[in-house]
Write a structure and sequence with these properties.
about 200 residues; two-stranded parallel ribbon; 3-stranded parallel sheet; alpha/beta; globular
């Protein structure tokens, strides 16, 4: 094990290569205003060395990896550290790009979106079945997938906002009607049994 570590730290760590389109994709996302971070199960120091070796470290806003003492090892623990460092960003605006079920499950555990790539080490069908937000066959597809995901999320938030406003409106109506009921002769008891926009049903007893 000692010999392996010695060789890996000197040579093996760099015996890898970037997937096609990685740098171009990251630059495109940066131009579109995305914050880019790495969340890896590799030791954080090693991640930085690899990114620096390929000349793309400056493109990342942060790099989060495992710790040598084992306090941060599982994917969910690494993602928790990301969310701690980026606490000003809602998790609904975060998305993990991964290629294994470790990524998919880690994202699901933390309640953030995950887009899976089909050309990595993971089982494509298994990741699809786990409910990823999207699947891409090349990094050229990623910016558009993220755009669609962001658009869908904004539309969903919009629906919730509309619902919230309607609920406030209903509450105002209910309060007004109840005030009117309170003015009715005390011999007549009335209560609101149903209220909806456009329809108010009052039961007299």
């Amino acid at each position: 094990m000692q010999k392996y570590r010695e060789r890996y730290n000197k040579t093996g760590i760099f015996e890898c290569k970037l997937y096609p389109g990685v740098e171009k994709c990251i630059r495109t996302l940066k131009e579109q205003g995305y914050r880019i971070g790495m969340a890896s199960s590799k030791p954080e120091v090693s991640c930085r060395r690899i990114l620096e070796h390929f000349g793309i470290l400056p493109l990342f806003d942060d790099v989060v990896g495992a710790t040598f003492d084992g306090t941060r090892d599982k994917k969910s623990e690494i993602l928790k550290e990301v969310m701690h460092r980026w606490s000003h960003i809602p998790k609904s605006e975060m998305c993990l790009i991964g290629d294994t079920m470790f990524d998919v499950n880690g994202a699901k555990e933390l309640g953030i979106f995950c887009i899976a790539v089909s050309y990595g080490f993971g089982d494509v069908e298994e990741m699809k079945a786990a409910g990823v937000a999207g699947m891409c066959d090349s990094l050229e597809q990623l910016p558009e997938l993220l755009r669609k995901l962001h658009t869908s999320e904004c539309e969903l938030k919009g629906r919730f906002n509309v619902f919230d406003e309607l609920k406030k409106y209903e509450d105002l109506i209910e309060g007004h009607v109840q005030n009117e009921i309170n003015k009715v002769d005390s011999d007549i008891k009335a209560s609101i049994s149903y209220i909806d926009l456009g329809r108010i049903q009052i039961d007299y007893k």
